[in-house]
Amino acid sequence: MADKKGKNVIPADEAEREVVTMEDKKGKKVIVADEAEKEVLDAGEKGKKVILRTNDNQEFEVDESLAIESGTIKFLIQDGCAEQAVPLANVNSSTLVKILDYWATHKSANKDNADEVKEWDKEFVKMGKEDLFELISAANYLDAKQLSELLFETVAKHIEKMTVEEVREYFSIENDFSPEEEQEIRKEVEWAFS
């Protein structure tokens, strides 16, 4: 699909809601959060860009104002290390699309749409455990504090009603206590198992 200027516009399938990518003059992908942001870019109101390269070698040209939601990327920009593509060794392209979508949604948040953003967050975190853990790892690597808090809260809600055995299974933790050791611990901290 092409826009008014003949640029290729491709909906990114990986995101929970539609995220649009465009190709710039050099053929690099440009992430825009939605059609409204695409219209701003088409109108020529482009800000400074930073190129992010994922661990699967996909490059995304992103507004610097969005990229600095990452403490890691912000530091690299401030240090002058973002003139070339910023390598994101622990982030794959599908995860980065989700993160950029989150940042764009929260960047446009205000008191008038706070309830909508909260509902959006609830839908955003509806994903499988593996995807959730992948997103947590990437958010941690990128030092994306607000996103990390949302994801940690999501995991906490998932495990709050689980038994010790269910938590072990959820996190793939092997029980390395003997039955006697486990019984002794249960006696010492009985309150934790009730």
From TrEMBL:
Role, per record: Involved in ubiquitination and subsequent proteasomal degradation of target proteins. Together with CUL1, RBX1 and a F-box protein, it forms a SCF E3 ubiquitin ligase complex. The functional specificity of this complex depends on the type of F-box protein. In the SCF complex, it serves as an adapter that links the F-box protein to CUL1.
Subunit composition and interactions: Part of a SCF (SKP1-cullin-F-box) protein ligase complex.
Domain SKP1 component dimerisation span(s) in chain numbering: 145-192
SUPFAM superfamilies xref list: POZ domain (SSF54695), Skp1 dimerisation domain-like (SSF81382)
Protein name: SKP1-like protein
Domain of life: Eukaryota
Family affiliation: Belongs to the SKP1 family.
Record GO biological process: jasmonic acid mediated signaling pathway; protein ubiquitination; ubiquitin-dependent protein catabolic process
Keyword Transport: no
Pathway this chain belongs to: Protein modification; protein ubiquitination
Pfam families noted in UniProt: Skp1, Skp1_POZ
Organism: Iris pallida (Sweet iris)
Residue intervals of the SKP1 component POZ domain: 48-107
Keyword Amino-acid biosynthesis: no
Keywords (A to Z) from UniProt: Ubl conjugation pathway
